[in-house]
Each structure stands twice: as structure tokens, then as C-alpha cells.
């Protein structure tokens, strides 16, 4: 049991978006060791098909379980929307997604809820379904924002063009007089300062990263897997260029991390993959 307690929590995203979850882990669970993986060779996820996302997630989870993680947090809304239920049935390790924690937090704040997300997450209707299962009276409007992730990954947060794009994406939500706005992609928290210059200050902002870490803390306590010793240094790995990720992430981490390169895909059962894809489609 002690060996499992000391195992790391795995966190993955397509890129730097999941660093918002990592920062919350540092804040809420400072004693836990973390393995962070960014699938930068294949980002953005938000414009891909469900079958592709499921394949990517399964490959990442195979690798993470080989690293002996005790829990995995999908710090990616697109993966949470399109693959979470399928892979939970396949892997023994606890896997948490960001959508349900974000939805629960949103309905506590308002009833006119806007969601900005990747096109794939918006198409899935995952937030609308989760919110209205909790509160059928809540109204939900969703906007797919295909340009946000590439702009963030290119470190163009304060470009004039980025603000124009943000105004375009937020305009239809503001027209519906929303009282709450969910960051339906973990990357989008990096745009918060910019978004606050566009929306009224009365709109409540929901970052699911904070709430998924709260859920992880509770689950670790229930399973008796909370780490009691001090944390090991965070291990970072990417499928793309390690130097690019290291340089980009420095502004949010406060230091320049050492980043490993990992080659994906990792082999898995084609038969089971086809079965899971059929379920999703």
C-alpha cells in the first residue's frame, strides 16, 4: 500500500493547457508527485474525430500505467468528452475527467451558462448534458473556439488578432446575457486576463481545473492512497519537441522544466480499440 501511495498522479493534455491542472495540484495536493504528459506532436485535439481521440487517449494511458501512476487526471476537455467512459471500463487505474467537476461548479453559480471549448467538445454536448442532468432548468450555450489552442501554444496570447478572435467567440454568449462562463478547455485559463477585458465583471468564471483536483483529493482519501511523504520533482514528458514545451511552459511554471521526449503510439489491442470506437460512434 505504501508503494502505491508514493506513486505519482498522472496528468495529460494535448499541450500546455493541463498546466492549469498541475498548478492546482501544487496548490491543493503539494505532497503528491506528478507525471505530466503533453501530446504536443498531435495537438490540437479539438478538431479531430472521436475515434482518433480515443486511440490517442488509450496510447497515453498504456504508457502512464507502465510508469506506475496511481491515478490519472485527463486535463483535457476533449478527451474527457469523447473517451473517458470508454477507457474507464478498460483500465484499472482511477481516471478523472474535467467536465463533471466543472459542470457541478457552474450550476452552483448561475442558470445562464456559457461554455467556450474546442469544436469537438462543443459537438459532443458533454457540458450541456452534464449541467442539465444536475439542474434541468439551467440554460446552456456553447461556442467552439478552434483558434484558441494554436494561438496559446504559439504564445500569442496578447496579439491584437487573439483579442479579435476572442471577441468573435464570446459575442454570441454575451448576446444571451450569460451569468456564468466555463473554460471548456484547460488551455483557456491562460487567456483569463484577456477574457476579463471583454466580458462584464458580473459574469462568474469557472475553471474546471480547480474542481477536478478537489475531486482527486477526495478520491485519494477514500481509497487510502493519499501520499504522506514529501513530493518528488514533477516529471514532464512530451510526444513532440521537448525544448519548445519547456520554453513555453516556463512563463506559467516559473521555472524551465527538464522535459523528456516519449515516442507514441504504444501498441495496444486493435480488436478492443475497434469495439470501443464503435461504442463512441
Describe this entry's structure for a reader.
Provides the (R)-glutamate required for cell wall biosynthesis. By secondary structure, the protein is an alpha/beta fold. It folds into two domains: 2-97 and 210-280, 3-Layer(aba) Sandwich (Rossmann fold); 100-208, 3-Layer(aba) Sandwich (Rossmann fold). Helix content is 47%, strand content 15%. The chain has 13 helices and ten strands. It has helices at residues 2-5, 19-28, 50-66, 77-88, 99-107, 119-124, 126-134, 148-153, 160-175, 192-196, 208-223, 242-253, 270-280; strands at residues 9-13, 34-38, 71-74, 95-96, 112-117, 139-144, 180-184, 204-206, 235-238, 259-261. The strands form two sheets. Strands 4-3-1-2-9-10 form a six-stranded parallel β-sheet, with helices on both faces. The chain has a four-stranded parallel β-sheet with strand order 6-5-7-8, with helices on both faces. The longest helix has 17 residues, at 50-66. The protein is globular and about 55 Å long. The model is unreliable at 266-281 (pLDDT under 50).
Largest sheet: 6 strands, parallel
Number of strands: 10
- The SSE string, one letter per element, is HEHEHEHEHEHHEHHEHEHEHEH
Q: What number of domains?
A: 2
The separation of the N and C termini measures 39 Å
Amino acid at each position: 500500500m505504501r508503494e502505491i501511495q508514493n506513486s505519482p498522479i498522472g496528468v495529460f493534455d494535448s499541450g500546455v493547457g493541463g498546466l492549469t491542472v498541475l498548478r492546482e495540484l501544487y496548490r491543493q495536493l503539494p505532497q503528491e508527485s506528478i507525471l505530466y504528459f503533453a501530446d504536443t506532436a498531435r495537438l490540437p485535439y479539438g478538431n479531430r474525430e472521436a475515434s482518433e481521440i480515443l486511440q490517442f487517449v488509450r496510447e497515453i494511458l498504456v504508457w502512464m500505467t507502465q510508469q506506475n501512476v496511481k491515478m490519472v487526471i485527463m486535463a483535457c476537455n476533449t478527451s474527457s468528452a469523447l473517451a473517458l467512459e470508454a477507457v474507464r471500463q478498460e483500465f484499472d487505474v482511477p481516471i478523472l475527467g474535467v467536465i463533471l467537476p466543472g459542470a457541478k461548479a457552474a450550476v452552483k453559480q448561475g442558470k445562464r451558462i456559457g461554455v467556450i471549448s474546442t469544436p469537438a467538445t462543443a459537438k459532443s454536448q458533454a457540458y450541456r448534458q452534464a449541467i442539465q442532468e444536475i439542474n434541468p432548468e439551467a440554460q446552456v450555450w456553447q461556442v467552439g473556439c478552434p483558434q484558441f489552442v494554436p494561438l496559446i501554444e504559439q504564445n500569442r496570447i496578447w496579439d491584437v488578432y487573439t483579442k479579435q478572435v476572442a471577441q468573435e467567440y464570446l459575442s454570441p454568449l454575451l448576446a444571451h446575457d450569460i451569468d456564468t462562463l466555463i473554460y471548456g478547455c484547460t488551455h483557456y485559463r491562460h487567456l483569463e486576463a484577456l477574457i476579463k477585458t471583454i466580458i462584464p465583471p458580473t459574469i462568474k468564471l469557472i475553471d474546471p481545473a480547480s474542481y477536478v483536483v478537489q475531486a482527486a483529493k477526495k478520491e485519494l482519501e477514500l481509497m487510502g492512497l493519499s501520499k504522506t511523504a514529501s513530493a518528488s520533482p514533477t516529471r514532464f514528458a512530451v510526444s513532440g519537441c521537448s525544448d519548445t514545451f519547456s520554453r513555453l511552459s516556463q512563463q506559467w511554471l516559473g521555472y524551465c522544466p527538464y522535459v523528456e521526449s516519449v515516442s507514441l503510439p504504444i501498441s495496444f489491442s486493435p480488436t478492443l480499440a475497434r469495439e470501443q470506437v464503435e461504442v463512441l460512434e
